[in-house]
Amino acid sequence: MQRINKESMRIKEAERAFDRKRRTIGLFGAPLLAILVFMTPIEGITLAAHKLLAIMVLVALWWITEPVPIPVTSLIGPTLAVMTGVVSASTAFASFANPMIFLFMGGFILAKAMMSHQLDKRFAYWLLSRSWVGSNPKRIFLAIGLASALCSGWVSNTATAAMMFPICLGLLNSIKEMFAASGREIDLSDYKYATGLMLMTAYACSIGGVLTPIGTPPNLIMLGFLDQMCDIHISFFEWMLWGAIAMVVYFIVAYVVLSRMFPADVDRIEGAEEFIRQRIDELGNWTRAQKNTLFAFMAAVVLWVTPGFLSMGYGSDSPILKMYDLLFPEAVAAMAGALLLFLLPVKFSERKFTLTWKEAMEGIEWGTLILFGGGLAMGGMMYKTGLSHWVGDLIVDNMGGEPSQFAMVAVFSVMALLLSELTSHTASTNMIGPLAITAAVSAGMSPIPVCVGIALASSLGFMLPVSTPPNAIVYASGYIPITTMIRAGICIDFIGIACVTIPLSIYFVTWVLGG
User: Fold this and answer.
1) Which of 140, 409, 488, 498 has the greatest CB tally within 10 Å of its CB?
2) Residue 430 in contact with residue 61, Cβ under 8 Å?
3) Distance in angstroms (rounded) separating the CA atoms of residues 87 and 381
4) What is the DSSP string of 142-185?
5) What's the mean pLDDT when you consider all of the chain?
6) What gap in Å lies between CA 362 and CA 343, rounded to an integer?
7) Entry pTM
8) pLDDT tens-digit profile of 83-93?
């Protein structure tokens, strides 16, 4: 145990040293490179596009190297665009009021209420208490993964991982106590099943995010780019059709790989069922706040998926569907569900409602919203200045002039995956998204498959603790050697990209839209 702790400290110190160098190089190197780009004559683009290209070089490198917080960088880009005369202030900052921002905000508020009133824990413990799970370690492994994935489709993957982490620790302590009772002492930091359970928790939290547009920022970012740059609107229901398939395939890949790499060496975990029962008893009966939260959440879900059923029943050109989309777009549905939380009383005599404003503000990830708005702003300015057309032609020419849709999706999906392993998947999606869309349009292809591929690939950051917050949370347990995470992550990353991102993002999306 002491040897493992020393090794862990050595690795963390190396990571800190690398981060310091990365940030220092980015802080001074990015502005110098941006100035160099602006000073270099480039044919075929306007002065405004040339200025924006230099600004984008600075923003992209600072997103990667993080010398300042990523949301700050997202504000620097539009601000510099105004100061250098690229666009007006109203144009540069319009994207920060994009309806997609309010869709995310409503989702954050609903998720905060679910966490505050422990609705997420109720669901997780309910799933783990099913009779088919019992004390079987393989089924517990599966149930933990399912609970993590399904929760993170609606709640932040970070919050889901933080919720599931102590549940996993409790189950692993049950294993340790079971072995101790039989006279066998085990070290959980060197126990394969403990490593596998922790990795399954982290990976499932990321996998579940692909289920809905609000499950993880890259989904909504790519939908925002499609809407803003191509005037293509993908509904909540349509995304869920694709996301459900991707989630199932990703989950099967992760479960098979991890269960084989980290098998259980017992047939039964004594005390597991009792542990879950105790947690359920601690939650007590359903409270009024929990019922109100469930009602508000279900109201939002119904409003989100209704257009899909209307389309199937009346057709995509139905006046009923058009009127519904006009009155209840996804952002309004999200805000309606969120606002119900401030209106549904818990104790009306004391004017106490389901959620307070202070609690709601704590649940909103303002940095993510700013990053999202900044990404949309940069993408919109690329389109307005003509930079996107120039970049798209440049990419297509370097890919041989007439790249196949398969090659286009594969290249940008792998780029998204690799960048997501090293930096924020939200920032990497903001960087790659506009380039991929413009390249697809320049090649005369539908941008939808490549956008879906990027969003799905961005959720495959499984190799390093810094790739996603869930990875960092479970890595802190001390049960996962860094080399083990890398080895397992590589397997799932590449199998996942081969099985889902490329074929499904091309054939399934093309089939659904008839393109």
Assistant:
1) 409
2) no
3) 8
4) HHHHHHHHHHHTTS-HHHHHHHHHHHHHHHHHHHHHHHHHTT--
5) 83
6) 19
7) 0.81
8) 999 999 998 99
